[in-house]
């Protein structure tokens, strides 16, 4: 599949690039960012996928998180896609900030008019990795995934629904139990309909209770002063309880004074890159 390069900037000796392509799953043009460390010039490197949160595009993470130096140090190719189909122009797509544009929620929708284009789960799980594996110097056997908020909802469900596919997973302020959160209820009812049995297939807390797979060590950072935590949108306690019951190792760090922003992400991004490098470079 043809890629069109949108930009390329040298950063810590590597290259931060953005590409556009015609997506089969989403039936539109999609952008994604990819950072190629110097190591990628001579050998295949592990691939680390980042999924962004509500209202974001591929630009937020690459311009605000400060991840490049850590990715260089550990020799990781880092991929960050957009968060929803672009240019779909469906009625209602831009009426609210937490549904439609910038709010794909990493599900394969089943309801009209969204089901033709809003297939972010299959895009992240199938189409994008195939594209990356075919066009960049990555080792397809060494993949990990992380993200922020809605994106960490996406990262957790991708890891839990596909045991063994990812070497590691981590999260910044994830939406852990969307079937019970206002954001999740709004998105799932619109994208998946009123049958709540469909919702459970995209809920990390529900998925972890039946997780059959191999060892999965999870790292989560959460700001204690995150307004969305206080508003009951994230519900990490439910996920922690499910992991504990299932005996899945989880490190949950409640960070005093931090909120939901990229200032929070930038503070702890090196820890997360190191977490993934431990498994990807083993």
UniProtKB/TrEMBL annotation:
Serine hydrolase involved in the detoxification of formaldehyde. The keyword Hydrolase applies. It catalyses: S-formylglutathione + H2O = formate + glutathione + H(+). It is found in: Cytoplasm. GO terms for molecular function: carboxylic ester hydrolase activity; S-formylglutathione hydrolase activity. This is S-formylglutathione hydrolase. It comes from the Eukaryota. InterPro entries: AB_hydrolase_fold, Esterase-like, S-formylglutathione_hydrol. Keywords: Cytoplasm, Hydrolase, Serine esterase. Belongs to the esterase D family. GO terms for cellular component: cytosol. One of its GO terms (biological process) is formaldehyde catabolic process. SUPFAM superfamilies: alpha/beta-Hydrolases (SSF53474). Its EC number is 3.1.2.12. The active site is at 149 (charge relay system), 226 (charge relay system), 260 (charge relay system). It is an enzyme of class 3 (hydrolase). The lineage of its organism: Eukaryota, Metazoa, Chordata, Craniata, Vertebrata. The keyword 4Fe-4S does not apply.
């Amino acid at each position: 599949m043809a890629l069109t390069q949108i930009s390329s900037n040298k950063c810590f000796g590597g290259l931060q690039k953005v590409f556009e392509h015609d997506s089969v799953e989403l039936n539109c043009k999609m952008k994604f960012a990819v950072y190629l460390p110097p190591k990628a010039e001579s050998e295949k490197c592990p691939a680390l996928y980042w999924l962004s949160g509500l209202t974001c595009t591929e630009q937020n993470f690459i311009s605000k998180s400060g991840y490049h130096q850590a990715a260089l140090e550990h020799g990781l190719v880092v991929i960050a896609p957009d968060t929803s189909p672009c240019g779909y122009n469906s009625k209602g797509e831009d009426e609210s900030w937490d549904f439609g544009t910038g709010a794909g929620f990493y599900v394969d929708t089943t309801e009209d008019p969204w089901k033709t284009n809003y297939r972010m789960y299959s895009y992240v799980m199938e189409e994008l990795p195939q594209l990356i594996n075919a066009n960049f110097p990555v080792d397809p056997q060494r993949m990990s995934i992380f993200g922020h908020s809605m994106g960490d909802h996406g990262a957790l469900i991708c890891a839990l629904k596909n045991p063994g596919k990812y070497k590691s997973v981590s999260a910044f302020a994830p939406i852990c139990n969307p079937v019970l959160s206002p954001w999740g209820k709004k998105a799932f009812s619109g994208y998946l309909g009123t049958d709540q049995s469909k919702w459970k297939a995209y809920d990390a807390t529900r998925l972890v209770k039946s997780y059959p797979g191999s060892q999965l060590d999870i790292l989560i950072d959460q700001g204690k002063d995150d307004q969305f935590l206080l508003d009951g949108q994230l519900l990490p306690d439910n996920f922690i309880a499910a992991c504990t019951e299932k005996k899945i190792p989880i490190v949950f760090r409640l960070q005093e004074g931090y909120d939901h922003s990229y200032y929070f992400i930038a503070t702890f991004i090196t820890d997360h890159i190191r977490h993934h490098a431990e498994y990807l470079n083993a």
